[in-house]
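User: Second chain of the day. Same drill as before.
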Amino acid sequence: FWTDMGTPKDYLQIHADLLGQKIPIYEELGEMLAEAPFVGIQNASIAKDVKLLDWACIGKGATIGAGATLQRTVVWDGALVPAGSVMKDAIVTPA
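Assistant: Same format as last time:
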């Protein structure tokens, strides 16, 4: 399987397709994707009252503030989502 991820839209789509198991996955990803559609939540600091909708991919050491909403969002390693933020179709990078 090969796909272009040259734009933010493409990058989000590949995550959506992987987490929705719509495309073939490498055997090595099988264990990680078993958590789908919310991947990485055990490796991040997630406050109370966080809402996860559709799918989310959260990187190691990421911090998700209280009351935040993530919908179809990729949060990179070490990134911060401030409390109360609403992230939809977003890519969150570290500062």
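Strands lie at 38-39, 45-46, 51-58, 63-64, 69-75, 80-81, 86-92.

User: Great, on to the next one.
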